[in-house]
Target: Cytochrome c oxidase caa3-type, assembly factor CtaG-like protein
Amino acid sequence: MLLHVSPEPGPLLLVALMAGLYLFGVSRLTDRGDAWNRWRTASWLAGLLVVAYALVGGIAAYDTALFSAHAVQHMLLGTVAPIPLALGAPVTLALRALPLRSRRLLVKVLHSRVARVLTFPLVGFAVFIVSLYGLYFTGLYETSMRHPALHTLLHVHFLAIGCLFYWPIIGLDPVPGRLPYWGRLILLFVTFPLHALWALAMFTTNEVFAADWYSALGRTWGSSLLSDQQTGAGLMWAAGELVGAMVFVALFVQWSRADGREAAREDRRLDRLRGSATDQVRGDVPDATGTKQEADRETEQERQRQPDPEAELVAREAAYNAWLARLAANDTPSPQQPATIRNRARGAGQGR
Model:
């Protein structure tokens, strides 16, 4: 099960194509002197490796004979692989590496109404939970066993739903309507208990899913149908809790880094204010009373200008959208421009 490889050309070609396109985009950036985080490349390739193993490895060879093998395949495609794929930031890479016309088309897609609906976190959450309960507690699971095309479509569905759920929560790509970090944590707190309840329901039921299909196979080795189903449910339960803990840790790390960047920006702003106040004191001021009134007025104006957290999130999203618009307009700094402008463009591409 660990070392076997099934010669399935379709999944292998798809994985190779996705890896090749990503590496080609990275090479275009490096050839023109732009930097790209190596951890993002490693995350993308690791996610594709998980997808390849789930589709052509030993798990895939037994996915229609053992429910436990199907459960592992389900978790790899729907829960494990989407996380490193989201951390690979392929959309950001495409926005920086694509030609002008393709870049404009991608920006339009990102700002379309369909993209806003699909990337809204509650949509991914609802589809994720409904898919879990709807597949196994209806006749759809056994139907997918009897029709290979539907079985393949089910694999695509697992991977797509996993990406749809994890991309707005932990992904680094620009997505419209992204929740603040505390909102994403609440969504995770709600999702994984529901996942645990679903696995518990599968573990405690005495009904064998797709019993007619498994009985017709005439399998004489391994555990009984019900015992194998309970093994698969237990694996889903344990894997879901483990992956949930990993996502929590990664999200907390992202949140702390974002707070650190925000604190650094605030320190720079305060330094500028202190420098301005010092210059004003050294200038021609009528008297001490006028200086105090002017300082009080500036303090009040600065207090009014300070946004609340929600307004700050909106402003940051608007700034990132403006950066995407500049990319679409081919507003890429040339080598003859000052180095500071190029550094700002790189920082905007990697900040999210």
Residues 284-292, 331-352 have pLDDT under 50 and may be disordered. Residues 266-351 form one domain. The longest helix spans residues 225-282. The chain has 17 helices and no strands.
